[in-house]
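Z., the sequence and structure:
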Amino acid sequence: QVQLVESGGGLVQAGGSLRLSCAASGRTFSNYAMGWFRQAPGKEREFVAAISWNGGSTPYADSVKGRFTISRDNAKNTVYLQMNSLKPEDTAVYSCAAHRRPWRSGASLLPLYEYDYWGQGTQVTVSA
């Protein structure tokens, strides 16, 4: 059973920064891509960023491109999301997720259905 535990959320003013962490356990972390998703009140969960097993592929949602950076440390079984220049519209519950298949070239990283394990989420609130 895979466990994902997020941390690092909180309240920040617009323009500020936060760094989210997601600690994974239960299977060989380095074999799998990881993703970050978010869900704002009244909205569907949406893709934010993903990272391949070695960091060679890191797609981002257009809304966060240039402001957010995803990274991973396979030695620590942890994936990170550095969020800079935060905006009120970034307010949401952020969740990390583990891809359902071991990494292979050309794997699809954006759709929610490609991820089979999810963390409990961490709240990020950006005030104007």
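The two ends are 40 Å apart (CA to CA). Strands lie at 3-7, 10-13, 18-25, 32-39, 46-51, 68-73, 78-83, 92-102, 115-118, 122-127.

Let me know what you think.
H.
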